[in-house]
Amino acid sequence: MHSDTYQIPAADMAVGIDIGSTTAKLVITEAGRILHQCYERHFSQVRQKTAEMLRQVQSLLLGRTFRAAISGSAGLGLAESAGIPFVQEVYATGEIVRQLEPETSAVIELGGEDAKIIFFQGGFDERMNGSCAGGTGAFIDQMATLLDVPVEDMDRLSQGHTRIYPIASRCGVFAKTDIQPLLNQGARKEDIVASIYQAVVNQTIAGLAQGRRIQGKVMFLGGPLYYSQGLRDRFAETLKLKPEEIISPPYALYAVAMGAAMYAARLQETFTYDSLLSAIENAGADRDQRDRLPPLFRDQAEYDAFAARHARATVPERDIASYEGDAWLGIDCGSTTTKLVLISRDRELLYTYYDSNRGNPVSIVREQLMTLYRLCGERIRICGAAVTGYGEELIKNAFHLDLGVVETVAHYTAARHFMPEVEFILDIGGQDIKCFRVKNGAIDTIMLNEACSSGCGSFIETFARSMGQSIEEFSKAGLFSRAPVNLGSRCTVFMNSSVKQSQKDGATVEDISAGLSVSVIKNAIYKVIRAGTADELGSHIVVQGGTFLNDAVLRAFEQELDRNVVRPSIAGLMGAYGAALRVMDRRESGLVSPAELEHFTHESRSAVCHGCTNQCHLTVNTFSGGRRFISGNQCQRALGLENSQESLPNLYEFKRQYLAALDSGSGRRGSIGLPLALGMYELLPLWHGIFRALDFTVLCSGPSSRRIYEKGQFSIPSDTACYPAKIMHGHIETLWEMGADRIFYPCLSYNVDEKKSDNHYNCPVVAYYSELLRGNIQSLNDGNFLYPYLNINDPKELARELYRYLKPFVPDLRKHEVRAAVRAGMEAYETYRNALRQEGRRALDVARSHGDRILILAGRPYHIDPEIGHGIDRLANSLGFAVVSEDSVFELAELPSVHVLNQWTYHARLYRAAHYAARHEDTELVQLVSFGCGVDAITTDEVRRILEKQGKLYTQIKIDEITNLGAVRIRLRSLLGALEERACGS
Amino acid sequence: MDPDYIAFTEEMKRDYTILVPNMLPMHFKMILEILGCYGYRMELLETTDRAISECGLKYVHNDTCYPAILVIGQFVTALQSGKYDPDKVALMLFQTGGGCRASNYIPLLRKALGRAGYPQVPVISFSFAGLEKHPGWHLTLPILRRMLHAVFYGDLLMLLSNQCKPYELEPGSTDALAAAWTHRIAEEMKQKKNVRRSAVRRTYRAILRDFAALPRSGEKKIRVGVVGEIFVKYSPLGNNNLEDFLLSEGAEVVVPGLLGFVMYSLYDNLMDTRLYKINKLKYPMWCLAYRFFRRREDEFIRCIREEGTFDPPRNFSETVSLREGYIGLGAKMGEGWLLTAEMLELSREGVKNIICTQPFGCLPNHICGKGMMRPIKEHNPDVNIVAIDYDAGATRVNQENRIKLMLSNARRQQDADAAAEERLIS
Prior knowledge:
The complex is a heterodimer of chains A (986) and B (426). Chain A is an alpha/beta fold and 986 residues long.
């Protein structure tokens, strides 16, 4: 791809080297032309690869004097230690674009791990992805692995899409949580790939543009955008770009390197081929040893002893060819892998299977069943079959399995087989960490990784691939690393940049491999389990899950805890084994027959349910004979059934209906818009009452939807704020569309004083979000956006301040009018609170009289929003819980002794609601936590403590933009499973 | 709040060592020496190794803000080091009682101590909000008066160091001078006569002359302002030695002083009464205190201006007015409106390159920091602001890369300005 048409102003020879997170590029320019360019993956061997690329151009450089500069995120360290000039990569891009395409108004550049936007017109500005926004090229690679599609094919696939699924765009881990169930439900790969591209686009816009519109001529740079037409299309469509506004230059891969060459040309310092090469070759000699960990094994002998000890935890195998009689089947259809075991009456293993499900578990299970039937012949009779894992329902329906087992229960059953006195089970799979404590023979505490710290096992695997190694080679390499790098214990995106740092410091692949194993373990212990000391885990620990088959990970765990643990030889098959053990009481199985399997077909298509306003995205699976299995639904309506749980109380629904019933009326003073988000969910009756009484038409933006969020996405300045706050921007846009004359959302440092806490603040985001809205949404100004600082606990003061504030807008406003309006508003708010109290009590009574379990779904008032709460309340109903909200029952309990500064109104309610659950046998509490809610880092521990003091289970669900309920369902079912086990135990 | 917290008693005052985390080295050293004169055995924790954040992650919820993880990690590692007798040591933390979660650092520290096996160690809340009572801990008027001076002296030394260090001809001379003065001031304040206003003014001038006499080069360096969450802004442990990094990149660092934050905290009390008509009884007292601070501040600034060599800071009342049209004075959680105002102040002082530091996921900074960047840039197009998040998992490479980008742009601007100036001259 040589070209000499660019007008690069450098006359003398210059070398520009761009070392990104995954690739290295080298460009040589002279007399305004490009003499040479090359582009290669560096597999983290930064120094060697650069030297190698330089040697390839020896003939061009030998005997010449030239200038040189290095750029790129992984180039900084090399440049520093080699003493070669460095230029920041965004800066380099700016140089070249200004030169070659001066018309450009914005550049979007996606690299291996970086995303950047550079604005050239309307004020020069450069944005790089923050520490949270996931890598983009690396993210697409990771998704390709997940889909089992070569990266090169993704582009082609995306062009055949017919629909876009909503996929969380914050970072790779979240997106995976969304994609996996789509795969398991059999959604089309074409659609998924296009949806992944869309997620990248959304992420770039939300994370980088931050309130600035991308318009005019837009240039696309970097590998992913260069190679993928489909990705460019998504950008073009989302940004509404006309074809002539898109610049996709042939040098998209080399822009940074060219910019570096241009920068170099202006420098004084010159190099020769030999001086440059030797500078690079001799760089990085002085290794940084600061951030290193002790080795996993001191020597081979220590490893051998370790291996021998773990070899003892095995399940006997039995030759399937000679066995005769009864057998039981267990299937674990996990998020990335499918596992299968067949066991004998003595619980020996007759057959096992473990492999990636390659995005289509149904066909894999079908193949496996056919293989099994062939092996069993007439000698072996399958008496029972059970399935567990993400794909549980799909597989159960497809093949008529006898039993579906909740994952946690399956794993506990298997662990108990190896260690009857087991106290703690830790399972690290490809996608998730599960761990549970066992007390008195029942599961006591369940902890699943929140969406942000997952990615454990598959992260190591993806990383191994990026280094050009298999997972086995890669993890083996780490065993004998002398100095594993310390990569911290945060989410995988952070780890990626920690790896970058350690490469800069000269770490080897061995050191990185060992370091990653330690990181996975630290993530599990300190982020998921959140244990301070090993003693908190007890002395009988079983570890399992595919990731623990990796000896380096196992060793890191033992080292971190400073104690030995049991890893069953079938660590990867424990779910399947547990499922099989669970179904051993069956004598007769309904499993599909060999004949049926022969003619088995499976098709899936997507649809939208129109049963209610929720508009669930459904996946309809059709099996041979026209049998159907529908997933993606939040209630039973899509299945053609009327809601059988209609009778179960749901306070979330009650609140939604109550707020929806507040009429807008028609007032003579024009219309005022109330955005239904954040604190408005609590105080809508108050403000609505006041403005109705003042004779305004009151427009409420109504419940949120994904579409509302997207409407306002463009003006969000801080991407790491919580979803309930970010969605506010869309509500403002909605209110303008509804024709509101003005919008009202006050600043409230102090919330309602409910007298039981140390103070009654709002959190900073709820309190002052209007300040942010005013500063970042262009359509808002001091004439149309009303955001006074108000004291809602003092009616007189509230009336006075409102009068003062509103008078300039409403010249005929009278003081007594406002006083009366405030009284009316306060009354309306009290009426609402009373209705809530009454309905809460009624719900408790109804549930108790029917013997239903009661679930306090405890969050904040705004968690009732269907888009923010994702219908978790209905899901809980469908599992048989009567659902009440924290604000409907907290007054039934006193404030327990709280060990934190109890200074926020909403959170004070949590503690009391938890106290209520703690004291009632039939009541459970599940806490909803928004991603990014800093305050909940404090409340969750405290709520847990209040519950656990009384021996109750604590369950936390972290919610963000995630749209799939699969993981939530598992949590709630695990809770149910644990409750049942407990009931049986006692 | 936990009703059963362990109070710091009169008896403990006799032989307990009180540990304090380091945030602002010069200020804190002086304050601790002053407290030492009143019978408290104080010790500043100056450890910086990586074990601190690891330990913090072990004992604090990992989603808690980074300063809490660091401060608590630093305390627990100190206790575990064996250097202190756990039965003869107390810990001290500052607590504002505002609506930010930082007010919960003390309960979080107590929880961590319990888990780490030191439930007996008392934690003293250094607070003006009166959240807790500790019989052995009295902030008497003489102590407060000296502390107040320490804030001014600390600010002065920090201001002068920042203006001298990038230009010093003899490496290390600025730090040596600042250290000498820190020590000397603490010594002098033991005597009552040195706390008088006239004596303080004399000392200000002596310090100013000493620094003015430091041999410095006259080259022009890029000035970079650092604002943000108070701990990561000031503490080298919290911001990965940001100041040293900026110096090594050839920049002059401009950091607003501690006085601004103190006055902002005072001002919040005034605003509570003005906006919400609450705490009316205390209002006159806060007004008096505010006026007192303003007079001291005027003197302080006048001394710097009159000595002539160095750029004085702005009056707080000017800072207050700068944020008008951007953010309301009611936004009082965390650094609140002060953060916005400080960015605007820097811009007005000609410091066009600003780093806004915050712990990852800092709630108030969503609004007052990141949320205000767009309007600030809109009205001040020549300002270059970069937001840097600090966190146990965030790496230096990413942080430094972003700062380097900012500096590259600043240099280009500087070159362009210089060229324009040359054209003008010729």
